[in-house]
Amino acid sequence: MEKYAERLRRLSFSQTFVMSNKVREMKANGLDVISLTLGEPDFDVPRNIKKAAFEAIENNFSHYSPVPGFLDLRQAICDKLKRDNNLEYEPKQICVSNGAKHAIINVLSSIINDGDEVILPAPYWVSYDEMVKMMGGKSVFIETSIETDFKMTAEELEKAITPKTKAILYSSPCNPSGSYYRYEELEQIASVVARYPQITIISDEIYEYINYGGKHTSIAEFPQVYEQTAVINGMSKAFAMTGWRIGYSACPVWLAEGCEKIQGQMTSGANTMAQKASITALQTDYSEYRYMIEAFRKRRDLVYGLMKEIPGFKVNYPEAAFYFFPDISFYLGKTLNGIPIKDADDFAMFLLDFALVGSVGGVSFGNAECIRFSYAASERELTEAMKRIKECLENAVIS
Ligand code: PMP
Ligand code: GLU
Prior knowledge:
Radius of gyration: 21 Å
Helix content: 25-40%
Number of helices: 13
CATH superfamily of the largest domain: Type I PLP-dependent aspartate aminotransferase-like (Major domain)
Number of domains: 2
Low-confidence stretches: none
CATH architecture of the largest domain: 3-Layer(aba) Sandwich
Bound molecules: 4'-deoxy-4'-aminopyridoxal-5'-phosphate, glutamic acid
């Protein structure tokens, strides 16, 4: 469309929302589709967090907050970072935003000039490449595969660095692979990045608490890169608060000031009652909310057992987040019931049409051989979805 700005023409719609909207339309047309598309907890917001929001409304927290967030929330975030990650931050280093997505946009907007390169280990979360494009930057991809647990090594990272590299952006735990970087792996990555002071590490830790494998490490824990790191986190996943839109960045002061400047012109401070409720969430002993993580772990094990039995699926064993990212390359280049399958997106469409199960193809995550399933759904839905896919593929005419 001619009227659109060049910036918009470069951009794709978010594939996670494209697929979830398709499922919604099919459901509205009376089809019994199971959606494993969007990654969002299916739990209600815990009672004490809701109560804190009601109180904030009663107490008239209804005016603009400071642009980077209420001071008591920023202090609660600093306390959380100290308690959980042994990181020292002051409130002036925190910028509270409308979700972690917005926090990443603030950071990228603050540092990316036209033509700057941002390294993305692939698979990456759908929005990263699009955000980089929006800023006029250029993504440089590091390919990984199921064989290496979808993780890059420090050597691969170093090879991807050029004089134009401005940032490296990744999520650990990772959406879509469900892997997470261990302490030793991050230590090696940190030693590489420390040699390139022009590079900012954008470490998206939104799935920090959804980790069944071991202790979460933030790369900011390594003193040699603390001043080069923007830690991204938020309330959406760990507290089932996706619709409340609270995320944050913890940065060196110069970068936090950049985020505040951008946010002050674009959106102002985040929703005030959700900010107040977030203080309660962050100050509550997380063991009170752990029932959600335990439910996700149970579902992970359930799906793993069932998915391994699906013909042509190579399945990873995700240790964190709530996604499976199986390799379905067995089906590529073939036709299924007469439908040509050239990449993972075609395969996801095939499953939607023939098995009535919604997933998201891996192309927009930077991997055309895998598809993503969110297992933030009920055990009944997950069991039924895996059964449908298995039967559909067992009975499909493959040529
Ligand atoms: N980062 C990753 C890796 C995600 O999966 C998501 C999911 N929405 C986000 C950031 C954005 O979260 P928020 O709801 O806080 O914007
Ligand atoms: N992060 C979730 C996902 O990957 C929500 C959708 C989105 O923000 O893209 O499905």
